[in-house]
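BACKBONE GEOMETRY TOKENS
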Amino acid sequence: MKFNLTNIAFYLSIGFFLSCNATQNNKQEEIQIPIVNHSFGNSHEVLPQSLHLDLNADFEKQIIQGFAEWDIKPNELAKQVIFDTKELKIEKVSVDGEEVEFKKGKELEIFGAPLLIPIDKNTKKVRIYYETSPHAEALQWLSKEQTGGKPLLFSQSQAILARTWVPCMDMPSLRFTYTAKISCPNDLLPLMSATNPKTKSLNSVYEFEMQQPIPSYLLALTIGDYEFKELGTNCGVYATPGKLQEAANEFVDLPKMIQAAEKLYGPYQWGRYDIVVMPAAFPFGGMENPRLTFATPTIVTGDKSLVSLIAHELAHSWSGNLVTNHTWSDFWLNEGFTVYFEDRIMEEIYGRDYADMMAKLSFGDLQNTVVKMMQTPKENDTKLFLNLENRNPDDGVSDIAYEKGRFFLLLIEKTVGRERFDAFLKSYFQKYAFKTITTEEFKSYLYDNLFQNPAEVVPLEINNWIYETGLPSNCPIILSVELLKLDSLITKIKEGYKITKEETKDWTTHHYLYFIRNINKQSTSIQEIDSVFGFSQWKNAEILCEWYKWCIEANYEKSKPYIKTYLANVGRRKFVLPLFEKMTENTNKNWKIFAKDIFKEIGKSYHSVTYQSVTKVLENGNS
């Protein structure tokens, strides 16, 4: 990355504590450290090229300890290398085998602390001995009581949490290869975003390698009582005992997804594509860690109706992992492309009607998000290109990057035609493979390689989509044959028709979601619908979240015990956060009290990402 002072977000004057041979003293000095791309790292002077981790996972103390060794390439003027850390205990540092003094700054709430290590232009290796905090934000330690089996650990490094378990230059614009040696209890199996074992070893020590360069947010580790099942020649699934076959049945179409993706946009370049089913506390639907997608258990429904999430994470193997957003302000380049690509994979395998139904539901979500955000101080976050200066990049995660980004690309496809747009995307993934790209660079590539004349560009209003708030008036309209049928049924119900459960036996999750979202806008009694379907006792987390939102809006007291059980057993932020939002927004204060009581009892079981998001909602609800 070229260093440019105009790109510096801001300077922070912070006191540094001098560490010598791992002994802390009270000496301080004032040093100004620039924060560029949410990182203290000085990649303009020193290029970290590869990483080796030698770590032991201590489940009793809930810490990881060992060392991280970086192979670096300094420039002629380099005098120090600066890594990001957050709540890491640095024990000692060596440079090319010789122990050296180091400096570590005070901890800042968002960015952590810089670690400064003296080097010169000839330095090859920097080794950092450290241990993590039991409260490291990227790591969640689950006891055997929480898993119902054996203890489990998982990481979540995106966006800037890798620094809480590995000292690194924690920015998406920097890529590196890595190897690792992981030690853990002998009855557990570690897995990483790298080559992975399929069975447990006798000595409880495992070695990993990631040959393709990745950014720090794709560093990933999980350790649990995992078993493996092959699904195809280059893909399979890991899960805990008792859940493996169920997961394998759900993801049986994975080989077809990989074939469909390669047919669209070129070869899969990561070797294997495996999935590991995470515990319920996992905060996201999925995380696209290379070679090993971390997936929420909420998508294992028994009918494959939520496997679009796997198509999404697979698509990240091109958009995001292969071609990466240069900064977190360019996040839409990862997610908007991925949702568009996901939709194409699902269409290829399950048909256009199915894909249109998904897109129609997503458009409804996007509209709701835009309306809500435009009425708040977060109006500027409805732009595709975000201003995340001095902010946690996680604050910018919403439907905007995903869905507004997707519909922008869909507009381009409809303007130039699918054949031309597919050829453009394929060349785009080839051109920027294993590189990063900014929004402006994407625009230049778009103008130079897709459009044949200026007349094609003007109607798109590209700058309006990228740099202005709200949803542009030329957003594509999605028509879904399946959901039009539901509209007719909902109208009949409004007029007095009594629906039976038998009529819905062929519905997918998407049918039910649309039905619940739209039937609650009518005068239909929630008690009447509950008597027919008994939604509160269903197992599908996606449907339950939609149902419980309606229950809260309708002050349906009967649902409270079910909502509490649901929130205690689902940690996915997509489901947890909207329910706490609905409860705190309800004019009936009993719901706010109910929300606070639930969170006080079960909040600590959530991953830090979910916990912090809910905390903000409850705090804002009190203001």
Notes: Residues 1-30 have pLDDT under 50 and may be disordered. The chain is about 35% helix and 25% strand.
